[in-house]
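Bench log. Compound arrived from synthesis this morning; before running ITC I wanted a structural hypothesis for how BIS(adenosine)-5'-pentaphosphate sits in the protein. Inputs:
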Amino acid sequence: MKNIIFIGPPGAGKGTQAELICKNYGIKQISTGDILRANVAQMTPLGISAKSFMEKGKLVPDEIIIKMIKEEITKPENSNGILFDGFPRTIPQAIALDNMMVELGMNLDRVLLLEVPDEEIILRLSGRRICRTCQRTFHIVFNPPPDPKECDRGVCDIYQREDDKEETIMKRLAVYHDQTSPLIDYYESKGKLVRINGVGSLESIYDLITKAIQNN
Ligand code: AP5
C-alpha cells in the first residue's frame, strides 16, 4: 500500500502526473480541486460555500476541506493507497491529515514536491484546457487535445477553467508561496520530502517520480 502526497504550485503538473502514477500503482487519486469543482457544478451546499473562494484564487477554509477529506479517506475504493493531489495546502490541513492517518493506522510514504518556476506556471495555466467528457487535462501547445472526432473516450468537449485567467493565476501563485510553501519545511523535517524537477517532458518527470517512490 502506498500513500503519497503531491505538493507544488498551481499548474506544476500534479494532476497530469497523478493520473499516470495512480494507473501504474493501482492507487486512487484524491484531488481536492476536482472534488470541489464537481460540487460547484452540481451546486451542492459544499460547492456553494467553496465557489467564491475558488473563483478568487483563494483557499477554501480548512474546516470545509478537512471534513471533505475525512469522508473520502475511509471510502473502500481508497483502501489500496491514496495519492493526495492538492491536499494538504496549509499547516492545519497537514496536522489534521497526520491525525487521521494515526487514527486509521495509515502510513505516509512520500511527499513529492514538483518544483516549477512561476514564469513556466503562467505559460502552463494560461494554455491549459480540460475535456468535460473524459476529464483529461491538455495544453494547447505542450500537450494538445485530440481532434474531437478522434477522442478515444467519446467526443472531447474542451473548456478553460474559470481560475485559469491570468489575474487569478497570479493570485493563486501568491497564495501558494504564502500559505502552502511552509509545508516544504514541515515535511522535510519529517524526512518525507523529495524534490522533483517539474520542468521537462511528461515522461522524464514521470521517471523521476517513480524512482522517488521506489526508493522509499
Ligand atoms: P486545484 O484544482 O488543486 O488547483 P491547483 O493546485 O492550483 O493545481 P492545478 O490543478 O491548477 O494544477 P496541476 O498541478 O494539477 O497541473 P496540471 O497537471 O493540470 O485547486 C483549485 C482551487 O480549489 C484552489 O485555488 C482552491 O480555491 C481550492 N482548493 C483545492 N484544494 C484545496 C485545499 N486543499 N485547501 C483549500 N482550498 C483548496 O498541469 C497544468 C498544465 O500544464 C496543463 O495544461 C498540462 O497539460 C501542462 N503540463 C503538465 N506537465 C507539463 C510539463 N512537464 N511540461 C509542459 N506542460 C505541462
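What the model suggests: The chain has a mean pLDDT of 93. The pocket of BIS(adenosine)-5'-pentaphosphate is lined by residues 8, 10-16, 32-33, 36, 53-54, 57-60, 65, 86-87, 89, 93, 124, 127-128, 137-139, 142-143, 163, 172, 200, 202, 205 (CB under 6 Å).
ITC booked for Thursday regardless.
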